[in-house]
Amino acid sequence: MTAATARAFPNIALVKYWGKRDEELILPVAGSLSLTLDILPTTTTVSLAPEAEADRFELNGREATGESLRRVAAFLDLVRSLAGSQTPAFVRSRNEAPTGAGLASSASGFAALATAAAAAYGLDLDARGLSRLARRGSGSASRSIVPGVAVWHAGDGDETSFAEAVAAPEMHMVIVTVDAGEKPVSSRVAMRRTALTSPFAEAWPRTTEESLAEMISACEAGDFTRIGRITETHALRMHALIQSADPPIRYLTPRSVAVFDAVAELRERGVEAYATADAGPNVVVLVQSADAEAVAARMEEFGRVQIAKPGPGVELLEGD
Ligand code: DP6
């Protein structure tokens, strides 16, 4: 095969990944759990280019340079080393989510890239292998290989750190884009700074593993209330941890906080809704499907609102 196209969807963590114990292999300090969405996918084509001198990367029709090209080329180097190839590639990617705004574009991006590159270079990987490979591009991408709810095991090394599906009740997400701009500090840089400077960093892996164990049992029991409570608590703990770095990093803006308040108010009125946010100002509200429309309508004053359902795992669309 000389070209392959894959499509992957973003995921939003209900138990967050924040911090690496191995930066080269991207092994996390703790496991995490997420919901893969059915909107805002990334579609990526990898074409082998034997005549080219170097890799090229085009994102949304624009030739990429700098850090994003460097990350893609480094990932292709990994794929080539596994495939025993030296052939450069042309990568073309279309991403429907605003890049770098904390809506998991690196997760869908590296899940699609890993799957398309593995096919183009002839690596024969199952879902676990693809999840491990995607992880090397961006940790959260390991989870976008998997449909619906996915747990990414911290593992005890490269081979055991992958994501797999978990049974869970039907859940929807209301995405509230309060600001589509680029975030000030990338999650990669912020994770490192948190680990090096926060006095709370030591407690984080243990409490996250505890939250994860509770979350998996709540998912298996189909207990939406427990799932929601753990989701919101764990998100706010992550943001508290990030804010305690030196110099501090604050992703949540007054508008994000207003969404968390509006969600708490909905709960007081008996609506089961719980908020979370990744490394950016945008907020995602976890709801049961019957409440999605009403919660979305309530959120409209804060920004662009979209309803997402559980989505599919990564798909190989075509190859030649
Ligand atoms: C806040 O997966 O983008 O979204 O592994 O350095 O590429 P790298 O980080 P990335 O971090 C995601 C952080 C998060 C939480 C989560 O998705 O679990």
Automatic annotation (TrEMBL):
Q: Kindly give the InterPro entries that the UniProt entry links to this protein.
A: GHMP_kinase_C_sf, Mev_decarb, Mev_diP_decarb, MVD-like_N, Mvd1_C, Ribosomal_Su5_D2-typ_SF, Ribsml_uS5_D2-typ_fold_subgr
Q: Where is the Diphosphomevalonate decarboxylase-like N-terminal domain?
A: 8-163
Which molecular function terms from Gene Ontology are attached? ATP binding; diphosphomevalonate decarboxylase activity
Superkingdom as given in the UniProt entry? Bacteria
Tell me which residues make up the Mvd1 C-terminal domain: 174-302
What does the similarity note say? Belongs to the diphosphomevalonate decarboxylase family.
Name the chain's protein.
diphosphomevalonate decarboxylase
Name the lineage.
Bacteria, Bacillati, Actinomycetota, Actinomycetes, Micrococcales
